[in-house]
Design a protein that fits this description.
Radius of gyration: 47 Å
Largest sheet: 9 strands, antiparallel
Protein name: Transmembrane protein
Number of strands: 15
Shape: elongated
Keywords: Membrane, Transmembrane, Transmembrane helix
Length: about 575
């Protein structure tokens, strides 16, 4: 019977509200307008940051106001959305209030949740009201986006690239002012004497570093390429004929000195040929490198390097107990005129990366005397190129031997292999053939590094007197505004989505209630006229309204709206 009565009451209420005349324009207008304003603020925030992105940020005041503006817009967008979700919460709260009786303690939490997050601790209240909980939680969590989105604009050092022309100091091979060797001239011919002492500094330094010496420093990052013609060597396994000469003479030398030759580098000179013998290698001039330039070969000037690294470790010491068969090999390094394509990366931090690709054009002999004066480009070019060959030979000439008596130490008189362990020809795990090939590449790279260092590097604090120009890319770091739109759009998109769901729930509540409500005091006063409440709060202390709420009041049920017209009145309940 009571069920029929309740259904009749609800039907009457639905009829009363079917006109939707009790929906005041303010609630739907506030929800819709605030949502739209929030979305507009988000769009304006994105547009502002997009405009600033990539702009120079070297003005401290501009940086401050950019961040302040972003924070203000984020606050406004959150504020607008929270207003809309708050109104939606009020509408859905009255859906719940109409639906069933509520304890006064629950009503306290429901009416105050938007102003006091501690009310979420009343878990029992919110588990029973999931939609209302969702609306309240979204309203409280919307400010998260206002924390994230201002940080999507930051000031960072950004690499700025610009192209231009760079003037590069160099030491040309074809000018008299940059002679790398001593010469004599009678006005008609020029005779080569020896490499200049000024070549020793870059040569020794290059060997020690095993890299191209630093070029002129730059306050910004520079990248440029230079092309030129210069000397280079090509190293390969020596021919069988030359190797047979050397091997026969080397065995004689080893027997003469009771030693084993691990390494021997020399330039061809008088006595080298089919009849060479052990005395050739025992010559003091050959061992200390007094004659470092091949002036007897008819074609390319060359260096020979005899290797017998079997049974020797990477430090040149004999491997204890080694009983394998020695398997010597020999390299020949020939002088060529080559085209260089050099690549330079000069960092503002001082770091530099210099590399080059070479293309061998034609072999070059070493000439003792040639027609012309040092002022002529062909003469200075020839003399300078063979001076670099002599500098290279000075580094790799000489023997490394050890006595057959294990109590005697290894003797090393080779500059390069004594100063830089990376250039040492022996490496564990490599066969003699592999170590010979490795040494060939090492020598080619060493010669190339000496050539580049001499031509472009700062030597003894001095740069080249000549200059050349090159297209260059200059990379500088500039303080710029950097914007992360993806992060901003995701943060705002999530906020907007949940706010839209809340607004739609608010619209649904309006249609379901047939009226609009607020949680204001006046609204509460208008729906709480009942004698039962007066009897419930008869105690003088309770009339003060002070905290805490007495337990008997907090647990009392209140029936509101359509639910208030149902039966079952009691002294502990109030309904209208």
């Amino acid at each position: 019977m009571s069920g029929k009565h309740s259904t009749h009451v609800i039907a009457l209420e639905a009829k009363d509200f079917s006109r939707l005349g009790h929906i005041h324009w303010r609630a739907p207008t506030v929800m819709g307008t605030s949502f739209i304003l929030g979305v507009i603020a988000m769009g304006f925030h994105h547009a502002l940051y997009q405009t600033l992105s990539g702009e120079t940020a070297d003005n401290a005041l501009l940086q401050l106001w950019a961040i302040r503006a972003g924070t203000a817009i984020a606050f406004l967008s959150k504020l607008f959305l929270a207003i809309g979700t708050g109104v939606a919460y009020d509408q859905w709260m009255w859906v719940d209030l109409h639906a069933k009786p509520h304890e006064i303690g629950s009503l306290d939490s429901m009416f105050s949740i938007l102003g006091n997050a501690f009310e979420f601790l009343a878990v029992r209240v919110w588990i029973k009201r999931p939609v209302l909980t969702f609306l309240a939680a979204v309203t409280w969590l919307l400010p998260i986006s206002a924390i994230i989105t201002p940080g999507t604009l930051s000031v960072q050092p950004v690499a700025v690239s610009s192209n231009g022309t760079l003037s590069v100091p160099q030491r040309a091979y074809t000018t008299n002012s940059d002679l790398y060797c001593g010469v004599t001239t009678d006005g008609n011919t020029t005779s080569y004497a020896t490499m200049a002492t000024g070549l020793m500094n870059p040569t020794f330094s290059t060997v020690l570093s095993n890299s191209v010496l630093p070029v002129q420093a730059s306050s910004s990052n520079l990248t440029y390429n230079l092309q030129f013609f210069g000397p280079a060597v090509s190293c390969e396994t020596a021919g069988d004929e030359a190797f047979s000469w050397a091997k026969k003479a080397m065995l004689e030398y080893e027997n003469m000195t009771d030693t084993r030759v691990f390494y021997f580098g020399w330039a061809p000179q008088a006595g080298w040929g089919p009849n060479v013998n052990g005395s050739f290698f025992a010559s003091t001039d050959l061992q200390i490198g007094n004659n470092r330039l091949d002036l007897i070969s008819a074609d390319a000037a060359r260096m020979f390097i005899y290797l017998n690294t079997t049974g020797v470790d990477e430090s040149g010491d004999r491997i204890p107990g080694f009983s394998g068969q020695a398997a010597a090999q020999m390299l020949t390094c020939k002088l060529y005129n080559a085209s260089y394509d050099a690549h330079f990366e000069v960092k503002s931090t001082g770091a530099q990366l210099i590399s080059a690709a070479t293309n061998f054009e034609n072999w070059m002999p070493a000439i003792e005397t040639m027609e012309g004066t040092p002022d002529e480009p062909l003469v200075s070019r020839q003399m300078n190129m063979q001076a670099v060959m002599e500098a290279f030979a000075m580094m790799v000439t000489g023997p490394i031997t050890y006595s057959n008596d294990v109590d005697f130490p290894t003797i090393n008189s080779v500059y390069a292999l004594g100063m830089n362990q990376d250039l040492f020809p022996s490496r564990p795990g490599l066969t003699q053939t592999e170590m010979t090939a490795r040494q060939a590449r090492q020598n080619e790279m060493l010669f190339q590094n000496i050539t580049l260092s001499m031509r472009y590097s700062v030597i003894s604090g001095q740069i080249g007197a000549d200059t050349t120009t090159a297209p260059a890319n200059r990379l500088t770091f500039q303080s710029q505004f950097v914007y992360e739109p993806r992060t901003l759009l995701i943060a705002y998109g999530i906020s907007m989505l949940f706010a839209l769901i809340c607004v739609l729930l608010g619209v649904h509540a309006l249609l379901r209630n047939g009226a609009s409500y607020t949680n204001s005091f006046s609204t509460v006063v208008r729906v709480t006229r009942d004698p039962a409440l007066s009897r419930l709060i008869a105690d003088e202390g309770d009339l003060q309204g002070a905290e805490p709420v007495p337990k008997h009041i907090r647990r009392a049920e209140v029936r509101l709206g359509r639910n208030a017209k149902s039966n079952s009145p009691s002294y502990s309940s109030s309904w209208i």
